[in-house]
């Protein structure tokens, strides 16, 4: 990597790193989360990254308005899941696999923001919601324009477009699952990490049936390994929060490298503990989060298979020889 690229990379991560290492760490987490969909969008092109940087905060903003409306929340996630599936026709479903979970984070999770008055829930007031939305938007836009220079030579490495019948099957399956899971968990549990169920669904389900089944198996293994890694890191570095943040950022860098050079199953192995470390707090909270996370991932994986089988018979979509 040239000195210019190294300098650009440092500029790219500077806002998130600066906030994560400061008393405003929750704000740094939101900037970091906003960077992820836009960064994946850059693997398609800058237009996709810009769309992701705007769609992500807009989806999170809409989700906050539906937190107390279970049916409305379920319909919102159903429509969002269907839209992600249909976007596979132009190869944008990779972006959606991150936009969807972040909307679920705002809808079912416990995002925090650091305000002058202190750290509060991101949905506790209009000012907190506006701050959350602005920080996520900043992360996406910053990545689009600064990261766009870094990604000039890696465009076109994102997911390939799929035929419209396959994208319709994908949208039907993803929309139904996202809606059903949202409605169920909203009534079934108030666990702070219940949004990981939707993260699993958006990451695991693929446009083709065989690809999803393969990813379902690898996803369970990946997440169990990732949660163990997060627990070990949290236990080792519980009294060194700065080092813990740096480890999470290093894991994110490994996930990006794996996305470019390795099979997809390697990516969650790094990204899972990174996101867990940055969206949870303290060793005790992290251990509980990891247990919930593992249970939710396995549950979502098991729930996905029968719906996929039914969807495959309904849509009669055949996968090509490649996943």
UniProtKB/TrEMBL annotation:
Domain of life (superkingdom): Bacteria
Taxon lineage: Bacteria, Bacillati, Actinomycetota, Actinomycetes, Micrococcales
Keyword set includes Membrane: yes
Organism for this UniProt entry: Oerskovia enterophila
Name this protein carries in UniProt: Integral membrane bound transporter domain-containing protein
Coiled coil, from the record: none
Spans traversing the lipid bilayer: 72-91, 98-115, 127-154, 166-183, 195-213, 220-237, 243-260, 265-282, 294-311
Keywords carried by this UniProt record: Membrane, Transmembrane, Transmembrane helix
Protein's cellular compartments: Membrane
Domain Integral membrane bound transporter: 188-283
């Amino acid at each position: 990597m040239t000195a210019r690229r190294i300098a650009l990379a440092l500029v790219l991560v500077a806002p998130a790193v600066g906030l994560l290492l400061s008393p405003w760490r929750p704000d740094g987490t939101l900037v970091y989360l906003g960077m992820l969909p836009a960064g994946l969008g850059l693997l398609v092109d800058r237009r996709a990254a810009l769309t992701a940087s705007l769609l992500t905060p807009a989806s999170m903003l809409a989700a906050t308005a539906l937190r107390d409306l279970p049916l409305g929340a379920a319909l919102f996630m159903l429509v969002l899941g269907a839209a992600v599936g249909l976007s596979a026709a132009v190869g944008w479903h990779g972006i959606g696999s991150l936009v969807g979970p972040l909307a679920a984070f705002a809808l079912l999770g416990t995002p925090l923001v650091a305000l002058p008055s202190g750290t509060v829930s991101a949905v506790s007031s209009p000012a907190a919601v506006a701050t959350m939305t602005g920080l996520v938007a900043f992360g996406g836009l910053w990545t689009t324009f600064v990261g766009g220079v870094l990604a000039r030579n890696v465009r076109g490495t994102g997911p390939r477009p799929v035929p419209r019948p396959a994208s319709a099957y994908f949208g039907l399956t993803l929309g139904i699952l996202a809606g059903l899971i949202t409605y169920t968990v909203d009534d079934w549990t108030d666990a702070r990490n219940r949004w990981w169920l939707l993260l699993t669904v958006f990451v695991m389900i693929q446009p083709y049936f065989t690809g999803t089944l393969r990813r379902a198996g690898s996803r369970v293994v990946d997440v169990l390994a990732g949660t163990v890694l997060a627990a070990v890191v949290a236990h080792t570095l519980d009294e060194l929060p700065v080092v813990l943040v740096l480890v999470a950022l290093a894991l994110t860098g490994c996930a990006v490298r794996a996305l470019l050079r390795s099979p997809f199953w390697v990516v969650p192995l790094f990204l899972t503990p990174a996101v867990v470390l940055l969206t949870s707090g303290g060793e005790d909270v992290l251990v509980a989060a990891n247990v919930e996370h593992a249970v939710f991932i396995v549950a979502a994986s098991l729930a996905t298979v029968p719906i996929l089988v039914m969807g495959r018979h309904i849509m009669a979509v055949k996968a090509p020889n490649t996943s």
